[in-house]
Amino acid sequence: MTSEMLPAFIESSNVERKQSLNEDQEKSQKPRLGERFEPISKRQMKKLIKQKQWEEQRELRKQKRKEKRKRKQLERQCQLESNSDGNDRKRIRRDVVHSTLRLIIDCSFDSLMILKDIKKLHKQIQRCYAENRRALHPVQFYLTSHGGQLKQNMDENDKGWVNWKDIHIKPEHYSEFIKKEDLIYLTSDSPNVLKELDESKAYVIGGLVDHNHHKGLTYKQASNHGIDHAQLPLGNFVKMNSRKVLAINHVFEIILEYLETRDWQEAFFTILPQRKGAVPTDKACEGSSHDKKSARVEDGLDSDSSEEENSRNELESPHEEEKQDKENSNESTVNSTPH
Hints:
By secondary structure, the chain is α/β, with parallel strands linked by helices. It has helices at 5-29, 42-82, 88-94, 115-134, 148-157, 217-224, 234-237, 248-261, 264-271, 281-301, 307-331; strands at residues 102-106, 140-144, 167-169, 183-186, 202-206, 228-230, 238-239, 279-280.
């Protein structure tokens, strides 16, 4: 083969190779004969229904956030128009009504966290501080047992914390300067459910980012010290697809929102992130009844199965649901604060 024919031969071989590859891809993409789509199971059907509910509620949550922002903008505009002082910031802050409620982040779990979790705790505290400064009803914010890794991380990455205003940062434990009868520890393991907030009390949030490694720790600590404890009424208003685990700043912001609106459901749905897939409990009940109807329809379509098998399925399904509920309850270790 001459050197002049060689490039043409190489080009033709490349073209043939590409054509063969395209034919193979087309064959692989075509459905094979005899293949069938598997029918959707009951569990998959429930997941699809929950996903649909989550999508519907996502728009509702967006709308509520927009309404909240508009409401705050209107309030600020009214405040600006009703005052003649030259400093806008001072005019806005002047009309803020400070709450007497004390909200404490207990940072006594420093030794139980790695540096990565300490940094997450620091960011959540920053968010709490910023939200409290912007709130129309800011709380008396306390950061107690401040020291160790947390203080070192704040000194290195956020030196401005020493100039923070409207916050009490103390190295002492909260029990050293607040009366025991005034304290209420917020923990999801508590059997007590809050109905409303008592602004004469001091509510404690456990400053622990542990990814659920230390279950029940804050509840045990509160019980051992003889401190009253309670959980936020999350289960009374919200049904979530994911575990009922809230970040420290979410608990903090929910309390701020409740002080402004005096409505737990609005506070939860304004603050809870969309990834939680939260829906109102009444919507969740409608969804569960729809699940039962779809399950009955699915059982009715399976006419080839014997009556004995149908009766066995009816007996087994409640046990499966009970088992699923137990698994969910074990996973739902936090609904008011991380432990």
